Amino acid sequence: MKYDFIIFGGTGQQGGICARDLIESGYSVLLVGRDKTRIKNLLKNKKTGFIEVDLRNEEEIAKAIKSSNAEVVVNCAELIFNVAIMKACLKTKKSLTDLGGLQKITLEQFKLHDSFKKTGIINITGCGSTPGIVNVMTAHVLEKLDSVKTIYLGFVWDSNIKKFVVPYSIQSIFDEFTENPITYHDGKFVKEKRMTCKGTKNFKEVGKQTVYCIVHSEVYSFSKYFKNKGLKNIHYMAGFPEHSMKAIQTLIDLGFNSEEPIKINEKEIKPINFTTEVLKKIKWPKNYMEVENLWVEICGKKNNKDIKIEMNCIVKSLPGWEDAGSNVDTGRTISVISQMLKDNLIKEKGVYAPEAVVPCKHFFKELAKRKMYIYENGKKIN
User: Comparing 101-110, 134-143, 293-302, which segment has the lowest mean pLDDT?
Assistant: First the structure.
């Protein structure tokens, strides 16, 4: 069977959300993952298929892509597999989207730009909520400004029931909480102390939230694309509700994020792998709802006048998507950008972040169809 898309990480939360959005948009999807039971409802659809692939094996990845006959590859797997999947796409000459790789992996991905351009394909890296939506919101603002000095950005979220659930990939969260973030200060990259508190403020729909400086890829990509507009400062910040923050920090303090194997009954296991599998079994409370605010604050100039513009994307739990919470803004967003790529609305070749290639107007329109609303200085624009 010929599929429109192949999704790596297809049995994970984001892969499942993306697959559902693609299927409901009328496309066929081949899902690649490990636990088929997690997507049994999706596989009831005749437009879906499933295969198991070892993502540590580049040849297996390439073979899966070839067998799918898919036009676009969608990577919703953990970021450690980004480069391997990119190399398999080079072999099969297929374009792809992914959810980003913080800074360490993103730098490796951009090294493949010339190879992708020469092959005539594209990798759009960071196609979720953040990176993803925030990148396109930033591009939207910078189209209006003559110059830009400072960009502050990030996300905050909260829930109606103060009980811990896994907000998104726990491996990504552990990386964000434990790695020293890189900020961009006065035109230079600066290593900060991990989880540096950047203060407390009120955010639209979420309310009062304390934000912390964490590692994220936007710092690198914004400096790459917007330096010629005079950009001097970039700070990325994350805000978690107190009950979630405490639970995550406790797991880290107790070593549940460790990559160092331990022996149990003569078998070796990494605590991070154990933790990941256990947390997958946490069920969301009845009537649990989330709200997330993806935000960007930009200071620049227009006609020699100082301008400050704030962008927000507000995402709430949706009827029929309750088990996704506000994660719809990641899985459904990579679906949107992948569809735009398939429909030839994005024509560039090489390796790019969304702010460089995704058409803002069409993108915002598609988000609105999915009840993800964009605000510019408090006014809804989609």
Answer: 101-110
Rg, the chain, Cα only: 20
Q: 256, 271 in Cβ contact below 8 A? A: yes
pLDDT value of position 40: 84
Partners of 350 in beta bridges: 122
- Give the pLDDT confidence of 80-133 residue by residue, as tens digits: 999 999 999 999 999 999 999 888 899 999 999 999 999 999 999 999 999 999
Q: Are 55 and 85 in contact (CB under 8 A)?
A: yes
**Apex CA 306: angle with CA 304 and CA 307, to 5°?**
120
Question: In the chain, what percentage of residues exceed pLDDT 70?
Answer: 100
Which domains can be identified in the chain, with CATH numbers? 5-129+330-358 (3.40.50.720), 133-325+363-380 (3.30.360.10)
DSSP string over 64-101: HHHHHT-SEEEE-S-GGGHHHHHHHHHHHT-EEEE---
Query: CA-to-CA distance for 77 and 95, rounded, in angstroms?
Result: 16
Cα–Cα distance for residue pair 372/337, rounded to 1 Å: 14
